[in-house]
Amino acid sequence: MSLRPRSRIVIDTNVYLSRYLRPTSVPGRAVQRALERDITLVSLPTLLELRDVLNRRKFSRYVNQSEASPFLNRVAGAAEQIEVLSQIEICRHPKDNKFLALAVDGHADLILTGDQDLLVLNPFRGIAVVTPMQYLAED
Question: How far is residue 51's CA from residue 41's CA, in Å, rounded to a whole number?
Answer without folding.
Answer: 16
